Amino acid sequence: MGMSILKTKIEIIKYIASSNNEKLSSNDGTNYMENGNGIEIIKELLVTEIGETAHAYLHKNIDLSNNVTMLQSTSTRFNVEKINLNKFKNIVNIKRVNDIRWLNKFFEVVNSKLPIDGIFIGCVETKRERKARILRKSPSPFNWLHYSIDFIHKRIAPKIWLTKRLYFSLTKGKNRVITKAETLGRLISCGFKIIDEVEINNYTWFVVKKVSLPLYDNNPSYGPIYKMPRIGKNGKIINVYKLRTMHPFSEYLQEYMIEKYGYDNEGKGKIKNDFRATTLGSFFRRYWLDELPQLINVFKGEMVLVGVRPLSRTRFNEFPDEMKKRRTQFKPGCFPPYVALLMPNEEDNIKAEKIYLDQKEKHPFWTDIKFFWLSVYNIVTNKIRSA
Q: Between the N and C ends of the chain, which has fewer C-beta atoms within 10 Å?
């Protein structure tokens, strides 16, 4: 490689890392961005780092050559902090987010440097992609032994109180295991809207747009029991307790999942291709174990054993106005009507609630008794499973 080309590449690298340059010029005054050399060398560098397909994906979503796009490869928010405010409309970080320890803080800083509708592009090696990579590395059964050790080290140790502090002290948060659901959920909680996400070369690339300031959630749902904001009696928002069946930060993805995937073909009110549920969570749902913490809401007087289901704001707004008014006259219940009547699909769910409310308004006590025992029978005989 000639010295002139090497020198040009050094200048390009400086441009990528800088937050202040308006244009890129070499020591002899040549403007590489104006004569086209800079664009080609940026492409060459990016293709070397992330591959041709990933580069094409970046190019498809933003203009990599203009002065309002910031290209970085960093795992520290310090390098984002030094970017001048309101200077860039697009920020691209080709460093995978698995190596960023304080992930929400990093996303919050990116948010602060972008205007409304500004674009942020990044990538993550998801839990599923990591598993596939490990299993490809060596023949069976050694690959499964490797994966088992990695699972204990990377998935269990960071979550146990006795080992959590030691784990982060040794790893500094590098090479963490993170799911697709958690990554996208964190981005939404930090004020971004998901525009697109795609898997390329065993990484998931995401394109997000700034739509608001971060929520600065000081109590993210990371524990085994978490609270979901739901519509209660008289339209009051209550926090419904549930045993975790989804990956952390999944609650922020509800609207995105419905918009992107819709409901399943059977119309059971369940989201199609829902990647948010954990393996253990699916077991809990099958036997309704995830609903047990709702007894806390019953003891607090926010819910009853039998009643309309506590809904998210998004799902509540999908109901007819008449049903919105009728169902908020009562406390929501742990056992919703569709369980007793075996009517889980989207349209029949509303019909089930109408049947229940019609009967409850006439015979409140006996209606709840009947619906309770029908629900218990259907759950015990495995005729229906938790949503």
A: N
Q: How many angstroms separate the first and last alpha carbons of the chain?
A: 61
Strands in 247-328 per DSSP E: 304-306
Please give the structure tokens belonging to residue 147.
């994966």
φ/ψ of 12, rounded to 5, equals -65, -45
Domains of the chain, earliest start first: 3-125+182-210 (3.40.50), 127-171 (no CATH), 225-380 (no CATH)
* CA-to-CA separations, 147 to 118, 135, 139, 250, in angstroms, rounded: 39, 7, 12, 25
pLDDT in tens, 186-205: 999 999 999 999 999 999 99
Residue reference for tokens 């629900």: 375
Radius of gyration of the chain (CA): 25
Three-class SS state of 322: helix
Give the span between the Cα atoms of 69 and 71, in whole angstroms: 7
Residue listed under structure tokens 């591959």: 51
Whether the CB-CB separation of 81 and 109 falls below 8 Å is answered with yes
pTM of the model: 0.71
**Edge-to-edge strands, sheet with 69-72:** 69-72, 90-93, 119-124, 203-210, 192-200
For 46-73, the pLDDT digits (tens) are 888 899 999 999 999 998 877 788 888 8
CB atoms within 10 A of CB 197: 18
Give, in order, the Cα–Cα distances in Å from 21 to each of 5, 49, 99.
Answer: 20, 23, 27
